[in-house]
Amino acid sequence: MNIETTSLNSKGGSPSKRGKKRHVTDGIMHIQATFNNTIVTISDLDGATLGWSAPTRQQSIKGSKKRTPLAAQLSAASVVKEMVERYGLERVKIKVNGPGPGREGAIRGAQDAKVNILEITDITGYPFNGRRPRKKRRV
Predict the structure, then answer these.
(1) With 0-12 CB in 10 A as exposed, 13-18 as middle and 19+ as buried, what is 36?
(2) How far apart are CA 37 and CA 69, in angstroms?
(3) Structural Rg of the chain based on CA atoms
(4) Which ranges of 3-139 would DSSP assign to H, the alpha helix?
(5) What is the pLDDT of residues 73-131, one digit of tens each?
(6) Of 37, 87, 111, 109, nearest in space to 67 by CA
(7) Can you list the domains of the chain with their CATH numbers?
(8) For the purposes of burial, counting CB atoms within 10 Å of the CB of 71, is it exposed (0-12), middle (13-18) or buried (19 or more)?
C-alpha cells in the first residue's frame, strides 16, 4: 500500500504556499487623485491588489503638502520600486481617476522607477445629465 503525505499548514486543508514566490510581470497602476491627496495602488491583471502607497504612508508628508505633485511622485515611485523588488514587475498600465494636482506627478514617479508604461487611461467620471434644477419660484 502506497500512502502519499503532503505538508499541511497549521489550519489544515490546502498545502502550504510559504515556499512559493509569486512572480507578476504585468500590472495595473491605479491613481486616485483628489484635491487633498493622491493614492497609488498596484494590482495584477485580475484586479488583486499587490501594494499601495499614499504620501502619508512612507514619506510622512502631512497636511496640505499631501496634495502636491511632488508627494504623488514620491509615493508612486516608492510603491513601484517595492513591487519590482517583491514581484518582479516590469510593465504597467496606468488608470488615472480624479481631478487632483497629483495626476502627472504620479505618472512621472512611475517613469522614474524604470518600469515600462504600456498605456495611460483616464477613467474620471463626469456628470451625464447634470444636477437637478432648482424648484420653481413662487411669487
Answers:
(1) exposed
(2) 10
(3) 21
(4) 69-87, 103-112
(5) 999 999 999 999 999 999 999 999 999 999 999 999 999 998 999 999 999 998 888 88
(6) 37
(7) 28-122 (3.30.420.80)
(8) buried
